[in-house]
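ugh ok so i messed up the first submission bc i forgot one of the chains. this is the corrected input, ALL of the components this time, i swear. 561 residues overall. if the numbers dont match what u have on ur side tell me asap before i send this to the collaborators (the ones from the other lab, u know who)
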Amino acid sequence: MTEKAAMQALARLVPPGSRVLDLGCGNGAMLDYLQRERGCSGYGVEIDDANVLACVQRGVDVIQLNLDEGLAMFDDNSFDVVLQIDTLQHLRNAETMLRETARVGRTGVVAFPNFAHWPNRLSILRGRMPVTRRLPYQWYDTPNIRVGTYKDFEVLATKNSLRILDSFGLQDGQEVRWLPNARAGTAVFHFEHA
Amino acid sequence: MHFPDALPLQSGASIRDYHLAFETYGTLNADCSNAVLVCHALNASHHVAGVYAGQDKSEGWWDNMIGPGKPVDTDRFFVIGVNNLGSCFGSTGPMHHHPDTGEVYGADFPVVTVEDWVNAQARLLDRLGITQLAAVLGGSLGGMQALSWTLQYPERMRHAVVVASAPNLTAENIAFNEVARRAIVTDPDFHGGHFYRHGAIPKRGLRIARMIGHITYLSDDVMNEKFGRQLREGLELKYSTQDIEFQIESYLRYQGDKFSDYFDANTYLLITRALDYFDPARTHAGNLTRALARAQARFLLVSFTTDWRFSPKRSREIVKALLDNRRSVSYAEIDAPHGHDAFLLDDARYMGVMRSYFDSIAKELQP
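and heres the new structure output, hopefully the right one now
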């Protein structure tokens, strides 16, 4: 989900001037955009060497950390917004990290591939795991070790006492607010801790 | 450069009429904004880059990092290397004469700290007409100086680059230093630090100090890969307790011998003590976050996964304290096999991050 429209849709959830922590920030494009277009400040967290280098190259502050080791480095409520964009599905301790995201940020934004998107359902009905533009991997080599749906996340959020401020689907960079669990390849949740 | 005025030291003592050896590379730009100060660690000097005319093997100790077209590009930056007080590579040290007595300092050379070195470096910058550095850069003990710069003179640099360093030494680290110091001090040739007047050099102590130091700069893996259990000669064991049997023994003895030929015993004591003493959080009840509140620079920290002398954990403590203070900081943890020595070696990821960071500093300069 590197498309500009999707990035802009997510950026709208970040108030101008926010202090932002972007977990799994990739090449830093999102933070770069937030800094330039919305006057935000903050840091990215990345494990991958090439992505860390890309962040340094574009002048985005980046901390090289393995998210599976937790967020002990960050204080409670030390950021206005914590982003987890296409990160959750790679985490072994996805629930712990969700709680950590809520602890460190006053608000959180999580976006991940929605496994209940209709083409995925169709593929499963045919008896095969989906291989799509959004989920381009085979079942045996996918880095997405957590597959979940829009509805699944609602349950997990409730279980962890998160208050959902807004949620919608994203498809081709457009917000999907009607039947997002079936109609969107990406699930987006904006929440705060209770 | 000669400094006649007394420099007050942290211990309460002072030193006057001292000399600082330094080298510069590149050209200071019109608004004096492109200066980069490089701080050295235990066994290094002001000669950070380049070779001396007619001396092929005289590369500076960080020549892979600093020079024309290198990550710290001297075509764009004015780089300053300075030898610290108490060292043995040109600046005033224990082998020089006390201006009051005319005697060689020896053991009477005042104890100097990281903070003292930074103050001395700041005076050098004053004389060079540099009010603000583009960056202060150092690895290991040099990184401690870079960090200390940001606390002692927060307005005098825009960036601080701290590589393979720590906010203080752990007990284990002080312990290694103490073993090295005891090896030197108990050498009969040490003469309480006044060996110069006896025409002696405590080489045995220096050799052992270097051997133990060297072990801690390497990783277990690299040592195994380089030497393993390889015998020095042939395939048969000698069944000797005192002859060199394994390659690693031969290597350590060689390193020790080489070191004892040029390094000063009192300098070794002074520099390891400066390492032990460095602890900016000490005056803040051990709270590093409060200690670093003064810093204003933008930071880059780099550590190496196999460095157990200055482990990534220690760099992360600095990163956390900077995050707590909402300072601009980037942190790269390089998965290199070479232990502490990695900071002096070529690793594409390490060099890439350093190059990119200094590129971004260069972009801020006036054309």
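quick check: Chain B is about 35% helix and 15% strand. that seems consistent at least. The mean pLDDT of chain B is 96.
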